[in-house]
Design goal:
Length: 211
């Protein structure tokens, strides 16, 4: 016997498709919305519909923005010679909250994950390599998540940068002026940057190691 209306079941199923939302949470959210005034539901619906329509991807750093270039890339107060490479746009927000970084960013929109059929071509790594070659970059900070996929992505990027810009004085030289660093201190293995607090992430940025 069918208990729930189709509209309720469809909304529960839609919530379940979101990351981190299980069946129980999806049901709680759905039944909560049943008690929300209609004008608030309309506002919520408009916000969901416009989240894609009201944003674009920055042609320089691939971050989500309302303008191209984004406000960070367009700012004259940012050090364009330092690029912090992150997996997702939300990671830019997290790093910015630390107040410890005044460079620019490059958003990969994911990490290398063969089990999910995500390889380098599905990310914005080629665009990053183009920036490294064309811009006057002094440092690349690899701020991918400290999990298996993030480490694999960082290692791949480092290898590709070394291939395009080999050190003049051997393996331990400074890549002809380009330094590659990896955030390490303060972030436990397996943790996502998105969930790190400002102090922990700030220490990770300040205590980055050459990679």
């Amino acid at each position: 016997m069918k208990i729930l209306p189709d509209s309720v079941e469809k909304l529960i199923q839609s919530f379940e498709k979101l990351p981190g939302i299980g069946p129980k949470t999806a049901s709680r959210l759905t039944f909560y919305l049943l008690h929300v005034p209609q004008h608030e539901l309309d506002s919520f619906s408009d916000a969901v519909k416009n989240v894609r329509l009201g944003t674009l991807t920055c042609s320089r750093c691939s971050n989500v923005s309302e303008t191209d270039p984004c406000v960070i890339c367009a700012s004259p107060n940012r050090d364009e010679s330092i690029i912090c490479v992150v997996e997702q746009p939300i990671d830019v927000v997290s790093v910015e909250k630390t107040g410890k970084f005044d460079g620019v960013y490059h958003v990969l929109h994911g990490s290398i994950n063969p089990l999910s059929n995500i390889g380098p071509d599905e990310l914005t790594i080629d665009k990053l390599l183009t920036r490294v070659q064309s811009d006057k970059i002094k440092e690349i900070i690899l701020a991918t998540n400290p999990d298996m996929e993030g480490e694999a992505t960082a290692m791949y990027i480092r290898r590709e940068i070394l291939r395009l810009n080999p050190p003049a004085g051997g393996q331990n030289s400074n890549l002809n002026g380009l330094k590659i660093t990896r955030i390490a201190h303060g972030l436990p293995v397996g943790a996502d940057i998105e969930y790190a607090d400002e102090v922990t992430l700030g220490r990770a940025i300040e205590g980055r190691d050459e990679y």
